[in-house]
Amino acid sequence: MIHWEDEGILLSARPFGENDIVAQVLTKEHGRHAGLVRGGLSQKKRSTYEPGNKLHVRWGGRLPEHLGHYDAEVLDNISGRLFDEPGRLAALLSAASICEQAVPEREANSSFYEGLLALLEYLEGDFWGEVYVRWELAQLSALGFGIDLTACAGGGRNDQLAYISPKSGRAVSLAAGEPYKDKLFILPLFLTGQGTGGPEEIAQGLKISGHFIERHLFHPHDKSLPSVRDRLLENFL
After folding, report:
1. What contacts 24+ positions apart, CB below 8 Å, involve 148-157?
2. Where are the alpha helices (DSSP H) in the chain?
3. What is the pLDDT of residues 85-129, one digit of tens each?
4. CA angle (127, 133, 129) in 5-degree steps
5. Burial bucket for residue 142 (CB in 10 Å: 0-12, 13-18, 19+)
6. FRET label pair with 172: which of 30, 147, 201, 235, CA 20 to 30 Å apart?
């Protein structure tokens, strides 16, 4: 038998049989890792396995490649504190869904865990919308699909970056993008360090990051962005 213990964030808990669940956990030292939870649908355990909860988990299995089984205790009930905040809760559930789809399975890389944990902490702050957009763009970058805000793709002045190309993911200056602005994304100023943003700019940022996340992380697996991601965007329109 193989056993290990770790801390992690629950990404999803799907029913398995009559009373069990399969839990997907983004762990600090063991990557994204699934496991069976006996009696996970019971009233006693249900509150433990809420997406976004920070857990101490114990995993056991006969072989490393087996599904194995989980046992867990809650370290921080993050989802419970956001239950009455629809926008923030949508951000939590959206981030969990993106991690479940995008983070490599069983590959140790603590940066994904630390990044998600930091996001969940910021969701209780004042500028959580702007932080969420930055988190999605950081996920894309970590997976090799980052957008480029360092220079104008059309050769324009870099201090007047105003758009993002939906094809290349590169920034475009105000002058260079003017003839094509109907086909470009508006670049929120908070992503270039100018201002703290607001609902309109957050919506613009979510449209940009959502476009590239869907193209690079979901479409290759014949999937669309989760519906909760659409609900998140609606909070800023």
Report:
1. 149/187, 149/191, 149/192, 152/176
2. 43-46, 78-81, 86-102, 110-122, 128-142, 174-177, 199-213, 227-234
3. 999 999 999 999 999 999 999 998 999 999 999 999 999 999 999
4. 25
5. middle
6. 235
